[in-house]
Specification:
The chain has 559 residues and is an alpha+beta fold. The chain is built from 16 helices and 20 strands. Strand 17 and strand 18 form a beta hairpin. The chain is elongated.
Length: 559
């Protein structure tokens, strides 16, 4: 009789392993649950989500913001959060679209997996379809780079307005679209977004928001002498410091041993001489505006006020960097050897009252072009959502400036690519033909969801779109969902000025496909147990008799 071979234990006791088709279906179901959360936020008629985290409340319909606010623990579902974040950081818009497309691809893939199709065949087919789709988008994209400056500006405003259509500020999208385009076009050729600041001040209405041609930041904490300082200069010298200009208190338990009381006075005088020397060095540079990351005390405030110099301490780090880039001033870490070469300048410096706060404005900056958006609004949550909306719009306009190709929105590009893939799949042999058709069908989720969110009959709208796109001669290439006219739900996206950079769609298709393929390639999940860090002889490590009071077992006294 053959001896039984002992089992080989590879994993720690308590390790949870799940594998096979059931685990793959479970991962897909988890992702579909995440998609259902953000699905209704898509498009100009999308609903908002209220996320309450105990101390803060967020109201938003931005896909990336909603997913960030969810405390997702499922490892596969976190993949959708990652692709939404990558879309947000890469192009700024299309975060909901990329999650919805990925969810629809997974939904279609689940049906094929249950029928016995191997996941690797699905991955190969999806990647093939994605490459074909991207190639078709590049062919359809309209290049507007050679147009006149006036036409180019209108294009950028339309791209910005399309991005804002689905946001909370959509009722004022034309007002903010012009503001966003002005802000981006003021930048240098490198289009550094760090040079666009967004400040928020509650009160007033959205239309009270202003665009500052320069740097603006909120008045910092100040001492009594601050009110005696001048608040307006023309072409001032600007000195930026990372130095604390106030008397330092002694360290705890500091001890000075002296034989003569006059020696103590010399210590005190030395301390005052040090601070006065720093202040004198700053004034000798000729600077009229002195800003510091660190505190500027009451002595320094009064000293500068007596000499007609404006000062502000505890200026935020991002504001200091923007002022440095805009004015050409170098941030100094010492007050020794200061001269005019370290100073910056601007056309005008002034302090103005905005709402209930005062702001410092630096305009006409010669070194680098910069802008600041000062948002107004009734509630803090409303202004926060307006800030997120403008950030997305700024990213879209920035991409449109760098990449001058645009496509029609409203689901038009998805329907056209879907039609192309259906036709091209007939030339592909084997199972890949079916998978490319599945990819094409999944793209129709964008116009279908737009119609659902707008209260339209999605089945009827999709039938009209299919009919329009299959019109001979390409007359219906840019036909998409028209939510502005309920009686005519299908319209030409280009004529309706629903435009977006081609890069947004290219990145969305690529990110959704990669996320889908990654989830499909996982067939086993291993969950390791939490490690036990207790000592070997700890009572919790002992046997089950430890709590019964027996002698020598840690609970009772020896007999």
């Amino acid at each position: 009789m053959a001896m039984m071979q002992p089992g080989i234990i590879l994993l720690q006791e308590g390790t949870d392993t799940s594998q096979g088709k059931g685990q793959l279906i479970s991962n897909i179901n988890a992702c579909e649950a995440i998609v259902d959360v953000v699905r209704t936020t898509l498009g100009p008629c999308g609903m908002d989500k209220l996320i309450y985290t105990g101390n803060s409340t967020t109201v938003s319909n931005d896909g990336a913001t909603v997913l960030k606010g969810l405390d997702i623990v499922h490892p596969a579902a976190k993949t959708l959060v990652d692709i939404a974040r990558s879309q947000d950081s890469e192009v700024g818009d299309g975060t909901t679209s990329v999650v919805v497309i990925a969810g629809e691809l997974l939904k279609e893939a689940k049906n094929l997996i249950e029928e016995g199709i191997h996941p690797q065949i699905l991955i190969k087919g999806f990647r093939l379809a994605c490459n074909l789709a991207k190639q078709r988008i590049k062919e359809l994209a309209q290049d507007v780079g050679a147009k006149s400056p006036e036409e180019r500006r209108k294009l950028l405003e339309r791209c910005a307005a399309t991005s804002l259509n689905s946001k909370l500020v959509s009722t004022h999208n034309e007002f903010f679209a012009k503001m966003v385009v002005d802000a981006v076009t003021k930048l240098d050729d490198d289009l550094d977004l760090n040079l666009i600041g967004i400040k928020k001040e509650t009160g007033g209405s959205l239309l009270d928001s202003i665009l500052v041609d320069g740097v603006a930041f909120k008045k910092t904490f100040s001492y009594a002498g601050f009110e005696q300082q001048p608040k307006q200069f023309q072409n001032p010298g600007i000195l930026l410091l990372n130095v604390e200009l106030e008397l330092k208190s002694e360290k705890e338990n500091a001890e000075i041993r002296i034989d003569n009381p006059d020696d103590y006075q010399r210590f005190v005088d030395a301390e005052w001489n040090i601070i006065y020397k720093k202040l004198d060095n700053c004034v000798k540079t000729g600077a009229k505006v002195i800003l510091s990351r660190l505190a500027i005390g009451d002595l320094a405030t009064q000293y500068f006020a007596d000499r007609g110099v404006f000062c502000a301490g505890r200026v935020a780090d991002d504001d200091m960097r923007r002022v440095s880039r805009a004015t050409g001033a170098a941030i100094q870490t010492t007050c020794n050897n200061l001269d005019k070469s370290v100073l910056g300048t601007c056309g005008e410096f002034q302090e103005r009252q905005i709402g209930g706060s005062r702001y410092n404005f630096l305009t006409g900056c010669p070194s680098a072009k910069t802008a600041t958006l000062l948002l107004r609004g009734g509630g803090e949550q409303f202004i926060d959502e307006a800030e997120r909306s403008l950030h997305d719009s700024i990213m879209v306009v920035r991409r449109a400036v760098k990449h001058s190709t645009v496509v029609g929105g409203g689901g038009a590009i998805e329907m056209e690519v879907s039609k192309f893939l259906h036709e091209h799949s007939r030339t592909i042999p084997g199972k890949l033909q079916m998978i490319v058709n599945v990819f094409a069908k999944a793209l129709e989720v964008i116009p279908r969801q737009l119609a659902d969110n707008g209260g339209l009959d999605s089945t009827d709208v999709l039938n009209q779109l299919r009919k329009a796109h299959y019109t001979p001669g390409g007359a219906g290439t840019w036909m998409g969902v028209n939510l502005a006219d309920q009686s005519n739900p299908v319209g030409d996206s280009f004529l309706n000025f629903v435009w977006e950079p081609a890069l947004v769609r290219l990145n969305a298709f690529e990110a959704a496909t990669e996320a889908t393929c990654m989830i499909l390639s996982v067939d086993e999940t291993i969950k390791n147990p939490k490690k036990d860090h207790t000592l070997p002889n700890h009572p919790s490590k002992r046997g089950g008799m430890g709590g019964m009071g027996m002698p020598g077992m840690g609970m009772g006294a020896p007999m």
